[in-house]
Amino acid sequence: MTADLPMRVEPLVFVGRVEVRFGNAFPAVLLVDHAALPRLVRSLTEGQAVLDQVVFSAAGRHVLVEEVGDDATGEG
Asked: Highest taxon of the source (predicted)?
């Protein structure tokens, strides 16, 4: 999934689920039970928190924020 991929969310109240469609013509569909929504949100939030702690350098390697030197290249 990328930031520009169309995504639509539809609550399916009659079955207690949320439908998430990724894409347009032939979308991939994710159905999530109401009881599983907090777990999904928590997992995505945890993943985002880890990524937020990483700096992606121009060289394509990633460095934990704690390792980044003063010049923010990750080399010092």
From this structure: Bacteria
Beta strand 54-56 with 62-64: parallel, antiparallel or unpaired?
A: antiparallel
Segment holding 4, helix H or strand E: none
Alpha-carbon torsion (16, 22, 24, 26), positive or negative: negative
Each residue's pLDDT tens digit, 25-58: 899 999 999 999 999 999 999 998 888 888 665 5
Residue 35 token pair? 């009881």
For 22-73, give the secondary structure using H, E and C.
Answer: ECCCCCEEEEEEHHHHHHHHHHHHHHHHHHHCEEECCCCCEEEHHHCCCCCC
Note the pTM of the prediction, 2 decimals.
Answer: 0.65
In Å, what is the CA distance from 53 to each residue of 11, 39, 67? 32, 21, 10
Amino acid identity, position 45: T
